[in-house]
Amino acid sequence: MKPSLQLKLSQHLALTPQLQQSIKLLQLSTLELNQEIEHYLLENPLLEREDDYEPSPPPTDAGFADAPGGALPNDRDEADARGEREEAADPGDSNEFSAENNAEGSLDDGWFAEGSYPSGSRDNDGDDEGDGQDIQAATTSLKEHLTWQLGLIPLSDRDRSLACFLVEALDDDGYLDQSLEELGEALPAELEVEPEELEIALKHIHNLEPTGVGARSPQECLALQLKARPAEPLRNLALTLVEKYLDLLASRDFTRLKRQLGCDDDTLKAVQTLIMGLNPRPGAQYAPLETRYIVPDVIVRKVRNQWVASINPDAFPRLRVNRLYADLLQKHRTRGDGGGMSGQLQEARWLIKNVQQRFDTILRVSQAIVDRQRAFFDHGEVAMRPLVLREIAEILDLHESTVSRVTTQKYMASPRGIFELKYFFGSHVATDTGGACSATAIRALIKQLVGSENAKKPLSDNQIADILGQQGIVVARRTIAKYREGMGIPAANLRKSL
């Protein structure tokens, strides 16, 4: 076959860089958007925040010409340099600060020189009234806390090393989820560690704080905490229950428990209260805290008996083009020596337009949601109506994928709380009248029924389904069980009390 040239016409969808950026910004959360904008602010000198703007004299033509690659000088660099010159010119405060530290630091230096555990920094002004224990718990892991305690116990180097080895094997809750035999096999054979040595090392860990750490099961964890209490009849009865009949307590089989323990209702209730006061996860208090900050994108208020959505001004980044640099670029562009700054100017304008378009789309979708869910804002979850993405997309003439991006990781603040926009969408259940009831409303009804039930005779899933059926909401028992488990509500036998 001879090679030949052919012309072929075809159509395909091409995403311009501006459209790609618009889609990317639309699916970002508010915090991610701010991080993305900070990146653009560092890369593009023609882009600036309105609230950070400070009038400054325009750069000279010489400065523009001397800049490498035709780049414009950056006001931030000049401000940083000016700040460094001011600090160098007036070092009095820093010297006085150092002198105070040297005068007061002798006691602290001796304290930390002994290898003491506290590691928080102290405010040099002496005005810090924070709880040192809270700071210590927040900055110290469980393994560090236990290792510090082992350093205070008079042990041989071998025993301390084995105990530290077991500490490293603990999980975040303080449990030893591997058997001592498995851990012993992980040690080098030349150490010749006997199983009895690991048992002794584990006993040392059991004597550390928090009590219950190093346990191999919840029963052992609770038993260690009970053994640390003063001996009394109630404690001994609770210890027997934990070691032998904890499964009966978990299933709330109080009749068998009273028969096995030989006690009455009041005594069993006191024992149950004692056990409920124990901590089944002693190491959880030292787990690192992951704080998630939510900045609502939209605020909903009631104005003249109408629910109105508006953009949260704190979430909206106010950007603009730096006019000084833009004017200077325009002047040099007429001479034909604008360099690559023209592209950065276009980039800045695109970003400002796309950010504005992002929030306009969020506001449109939010207002459409508010219009469809007015009953929720008036009466709460029980009045939530079924809603799907397609319904909002058809109202606003948008694609479902666009509505999905808008409602993901975007939040709405209202008098009833802060909700993700996806919260207002959900499946529906048919009613006797031919209508539909939202799954969120059914969950709210289940929660209300469980909250008002008789604790001695809790409602079963069948009874809840019957009650909802009397209200015209046809829900199967397995659906009730699914919603109940999703909300973390135990079954009827586990909700029963004495």
From TrEMBL:
Q: Does the keyword Transcription regulation apply?
A: yes
**Where are the compositionally biased (Basic and acidic residues) regions?**
74-88
Comp. bias (Polar residues): 95-104
Name the UniProt key words of this record, in alphabetical order.
Answer: DNA-binding, DNA-directed RNA polymerase, Nucleotidyltransferase, Sigma factor, Transcription, Transcription regulation, Transferase
- Keyword Transcription among UniProt keywords: yes
Q: Which GO terms describe its biological process?
A: DNA-templated transcription initiation
Its domain of life? Bacteria
**From the UniProt record, which GO molecular function terms apply?**
DNA binding; DNA-binding transcription activator activity; nucleotidyltransferase activity; sigma factor activity
Any one Pfam family here would be Sigma54_DBD
For the region Disordered, give the residue spans: 48-134
Record's signal peptide: none
Residue ranges constituting the RNA polymerase sigma factor 54 DNA-binding domain according to the UniProt record? 343-496
Gene Ontology, cellular component aspect: DNA-directed RNA polymerase complex
Sequence ranges assigned to domain RNA polymerase sigma factor 54 core-binding in this UniProt record: 134-325
Which NCBIfam families did the record assign? PRK05932.1-2, PRK05932.1-5, PRK12469.1, rpoN_sigma
Known role: Sigma factors are initiation factors that promote the attachment of RNA polymerase to specific initiation sites and are then released.
Q: Tell me its family.
A: Belongs to the sigma-54 factor family.
Give the protein name, as stated in the record.
RNA polymerase sigma-54 factor
Please name the gene that encodes this protein.
rpoN
